[in-house]
């Protein structure tokens, strides 16, 4: 498998992700949007930081179960229930300070949204990996 990441000239600089991720792979892995639910199905926390920590843990577990690592991630979409850019930035920073950080060097999108699927849910992350 080969993954290359680039920022073509003529595009704006990024805060760590790359505009283009090119993959030659045998296997693609699509994770369901990972929510801040603990193994018993309960919302892990009321705080954005606590929920982000649970989502990170869930993604790491799902990647591992598929035989993948954060370095194998080729695309992420991060959904945060907020219109406050500082909250979106805080999630981005927390993700990039975590064991999952290599996943966010690939093509990534960070969105503030009005609603997520579970009551009280503040964050969800959609992940694609390649092996």
Automatic annotation (TrEMBL):
GO CC annotation: cytosol
Molecular function via GO: deaminase activity
SUPFAM superfamilies per record: YjgF-like
Matches recorded under InterPro entries: RutC-like_sf, YjgF/YER057c/UK114
Family, as annotated: Belongs to the RutC family.
PANTHER family: 2-IMINOBUTANOATE/2-IMINOPROPANOATE DEAMINASE RIDA, PROTEIN HMF1-RELATED
Protein name according to UniProt: RidA family protein
Natural source organism: Kribbella antibiotica
Organism taxonomic ancestry: Bacteria, Bacillati, Actinomycetota, Actinomycetes, Propionibacteriales
